[in-house]
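Write out the 3D structure for:
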Amino acid sequence: MNVWWTKNMTRSGARRRWRDGEIDADPYLLPAYTAAPAQDLPSRALGFIRFTAIYRDMVVVNESSPLLGVWNWRMPVSAFKGIAIRVAYRDGGTKEPVIMVELVHEDAGKNVLLHASFDGADASARWRSWGHQLGLPVLVEDRHGDTRAADPKLGAVMLGEPQPHKGASALSARRPLSFGFTGRGRYWPGRTMTGMRPHAY
């Protein structure tokens, strides 16, 4: 059933189609529940719908068809690669995009849809929030269907472009912060409590 479910949604380089309405699971109300019809035509003809319950540590899936019955499976959240943001297109040959957020697994048939929206207004927030709530990395998908980390890390340290050093305030440069002309430490509590200048001035 997983192959049927993802036939038009997971092929590398394929133009993904979305034939249904918007879906929005709230990452701050766990367990969150979604119900998403299958997207490929044979599975839709058989009435397949994927019902998913997302817990903080577990994903429980019920794939149901009124003709063929029910398939259940579950998997720990730690078995998933991360939370990916992707672009699909509305059915009917239009170029109208659909912004999707998915829980991504090595086996594409086990990907779980968390969010689908036509305007994309909340997609980025949902993407980041799901990653934070489930403790998974956020991923982006390129035009070939491959995913990569949006925030690359070296161990627990997040990598980024080098940033210029922010200089000290011009006011703090006129005298050293630790000593005044008397050589004594500045008496900061006096200024804090009474508004007076420290004795170092």
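Residues 177-201 form one domain.
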